[in-house]
Write a sequence for this structure.
């Protein structure tokens, strides 16, 4: 019982010094891969890189302690990171404090949902994400993730578009004129090192070599080259108005967002008082800063009546529109500032003056670098504007372990993140459980999917309290863990310990790591996600599955960066096709084949008996399929004018509900009234139980129910042919349609 609550206690059964040494080595090896990967994946998620290290600290330990797979390596993964960015991008600016807060809340919701599913043993809901949907989605996601790293790899800054392909186009066009060759060179160098070492030494942590080598090169050549200047030393008249525009939009955004947040509890209170009045009554346009003052006045009201609900919703809708406009203004100003290239002139007194490229005063000598104003998510200090004349590096990473903080989750945030959290939960668990099953098949260990789901959930919940974003099981790091000889989950404990030491003492060593190298790490990771053979295989297995995979692939690409829409299309299509198959199960008329079995007469071109029809029904007989079965039987009976006996082969009826039982009873009445005899063969015990409980068994008659089809045919054959001689009965002897056709032609 204790082992069930604390599964990690089983680690120490028959544990020895050799196992400890193996786990220690595996933990260290995985940590060396995890540290740079976690930083890269945090960048992919739109978060500062140290939040990736936070996600690599506590979640792997908790997942190992409470999961069922000792070798599963949990932590930041590429798909979940991309889904996190897709979920949060509409809500806040990447890297900002609100964005980070949303990411932590998302991890908490994901963890809570996973834990609840595991507790209720409802992990089967992951089956809604069918294999074709996942194949199509992951192939598209791999392309999206790889191309999303082009700006960092090329050393250009572009504003994200509502459509991913537009962002990629902007990056390529920016690179045609603003490409930073050292950034590209270091990124390509890292890719070459990782690809080469992976080919030559598959078990070696090649990422570590790429990170260390590129960081040393960056430090040695002075890759980062920033300079802080006052706006007075930037001789471009268009710059200061753009800075003012950006700062003003940012200030107004914070002010309006604060008022909008203060309106949320007021609206909830009013709706609770008024019985759930309309939640989408939003007014239109005419938005100005006076709206902020009116919103504040509303918040200050002490009593909220039912009559205020519509007014509050209208005000909230206006604020939402206003926030969207402000973000668009800030984004436009940001992009305009980033596009201006500068040349620097160093004066004799040591001061540096910046001029737009091509507009140097006569007689002035440029330093040879191309400079750009760095634009973040904070307001500009006009006395300290940072200009970049080199590449972008990771920069300063806060030292120390993450502090324990309670995520600021309210109903409004919960509802805005819920849909994305559900998808991330299912995708994350599907990835984790697939890896765990592969490990279990290799090691022979017992796997408990519900326990694993609870472990992943607890990892995300614990991570949310230590400033982590959503995590899942990692295929690459799990493979490294096994290859390194991990014996138990203690290897993940050691991995967390190494990450903790890195956070405490070694973060300054990562300062000079180029951002393009992190982009290269991400590109290298997603290369393994591209699986065209999987789509081809799905097409060969079932054409409809191939179509689902292709549609999931295309829609995910089309909707990017809103990945949830692409996967929802795939899931919706899978459900619709499932319902169609359930409502229209396969029905066939059978005849005897040369192999001695009864097969579909049409498919195998077999002749059919004129007096006996054998109809096979494959699928559950429930409310959605009853009409189809009855219609098919009626049509087939009408096409056989000499028919006397009908045999329903029921081996394929897996389920029988009240509607199905009622339909069988009515169909039996109609067929008997029309002069047909009806028999059944191959009822399962479950279906027989239903027949007995409803007394339909007695109505059919025990003499008309047979265990095997061949027995049923033998029993009814003579009576069905009393007034006709059928020498070559297709149910007794193989008769091919083609043979009959040639025989008739000779006559």
């Amino acid at each position: 019982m204790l082992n069930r609550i604390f599964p990690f206690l089983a680690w120490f059964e028959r544990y020895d010094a050799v196992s400890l040494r193996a786990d220690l080595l595996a933990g260290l090896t995985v940590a060396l891969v995890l540290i740079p990967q976690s930083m890269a994946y945090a960048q992919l998620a739109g978060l500062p890189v140290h939040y990736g290290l936070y996600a690599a600290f506590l979640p792997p330990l908790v997942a190992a302690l409470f999961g069922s797979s000792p070798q599963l390596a949990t932590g930041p993964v590429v798909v979940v990171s991309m889904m996190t960015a897709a979920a949060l991008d509409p809500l806040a600016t990447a890297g900002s404090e609100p964005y980070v807060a949303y990411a932590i809340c998302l991890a908490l919701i994901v963890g809570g949902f996973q834990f609840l599913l595991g507790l209720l043993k409802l992990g089967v809901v992951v089956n809604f994400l069918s294999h074709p949907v996942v194949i199509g989605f992951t192939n598209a996601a791999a392309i999206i993730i790889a191309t999303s790293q082009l700006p960092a790899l090329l050393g250009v800054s572009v504003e994200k578009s509502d459509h991913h392909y537009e962002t990629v186009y902007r990056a390529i066009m920016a690179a045609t004129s603003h490409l930073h060759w050292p950034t590209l060179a270091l990124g390509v160098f890292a890719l070459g090192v990782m690809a080469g070492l992976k080919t030559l030494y598959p078990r070696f942590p090649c990422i570590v070599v790429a990170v260390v080598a590129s960081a040393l090169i960056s430090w040695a050549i002075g890759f980062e080259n920033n300079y802080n200047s006052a706006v007075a030393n930037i001789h471009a008249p268009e710059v200061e108005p753009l800075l003012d525009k950006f700062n003003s939009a940012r200030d107004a955004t914070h002010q309006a967002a604060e008022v909008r947040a203060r309106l949320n509890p007021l609206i909830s209170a009013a709706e609770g008082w008024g019985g759930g009045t309309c939640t989408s009554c939003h007014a239109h346009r005419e938005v100005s800063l006076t709206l902020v003052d009116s919103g504040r006045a509303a918040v200050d009201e002490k009593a909220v009546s039912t009559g205020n609900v519509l007014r509050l919703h209208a005000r909230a809708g206006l604020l939402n529109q206003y926030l969207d406009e402000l973000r668009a203004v800030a984004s436009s100003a940001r992009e305009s500032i980033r596009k201006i290239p500068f040349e620097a002139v160093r004066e004799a007194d040591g001061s540096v003056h910046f001029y737009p490229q091509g507009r140097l005063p006569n007689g002035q000598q440029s330093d040879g670098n191309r400079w750009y104003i760095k634009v973040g998510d904070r307001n500009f200090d006009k006395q300290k504007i940072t200009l970049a004349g080199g590449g972008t590096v990771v920069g300063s990473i806060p030292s120390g372990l993450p502090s324990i903080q309670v995520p600021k989750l309210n109903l409004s945030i919960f509802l805005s993140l819920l849909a994305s959290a559900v998808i991330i939960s299912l995708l994350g668990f599907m990835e984790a459980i697939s890896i765990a099953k592969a490990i279990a098949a290799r090691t022979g260990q017992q796997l408990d999917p519900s326990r694993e789901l609870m472990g992943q959930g607890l990892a995300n919940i614990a991570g949310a309290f230590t400033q982590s974003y959503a995590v899942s099981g990692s295929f690459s790091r799990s493979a490294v863990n096994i290859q390194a000889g991990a014996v138990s989950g203690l290897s993940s404990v050691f991995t967390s310990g190494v990450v903790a030491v890195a956070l405490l003492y070694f973060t300054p060593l990562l300062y000079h790591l180029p951002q393009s190298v992190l982009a290269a790490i991400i590109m290298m990771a997603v290369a393994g996600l591209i699986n065209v053979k999987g789509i081809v295989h799905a097409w060969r297995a079932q054409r409809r599955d191939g179509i689902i995979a292709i549609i999931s692939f295309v829609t995910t690409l089309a909707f990017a960066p809103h990945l949830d829409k692409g996967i929802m299309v795939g899931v919706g299509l899978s459900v619709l096709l499932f319902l169609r198959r359930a409502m229209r199960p396969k029905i066939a008329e059978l005849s005897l084949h040369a192999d001695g079995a009864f097969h579909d007469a049409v498919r195998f071109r077999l002749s059919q008996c004129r007096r006996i029809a054998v109809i096979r029904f494959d699928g559950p007989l429930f409310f959605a399929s009853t009409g189809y079965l009855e219609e098919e039987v009626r049509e087939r009976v009408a096409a056989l004018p000499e028919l006397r006996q009908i045999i329903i082969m029921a081996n394929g009826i897996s389920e029988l509900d009240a509607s199905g039982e009622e339909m069988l009873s009515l169909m039996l009445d109609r067929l008997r009234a029309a002069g047909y005899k009806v028999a059944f063969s191959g009822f399962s015990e479950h279906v027989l139980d239903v027949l007995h409980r409803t007394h339909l068994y007695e109505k059919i008659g025990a003499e008309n129910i047979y265990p095997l089809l061949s027995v049923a045919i033998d029993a009814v054959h003579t009576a069905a042919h009393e007034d006709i001689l059928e020498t070559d009965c297709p149910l007794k002897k193989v008769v091919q349609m083609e043979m009959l056709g040639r025989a008739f032609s000779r006559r």
User: Anything to note?
Assistant: Confidence is low (pLDDT under 50) at residues 273-306, 738-747.
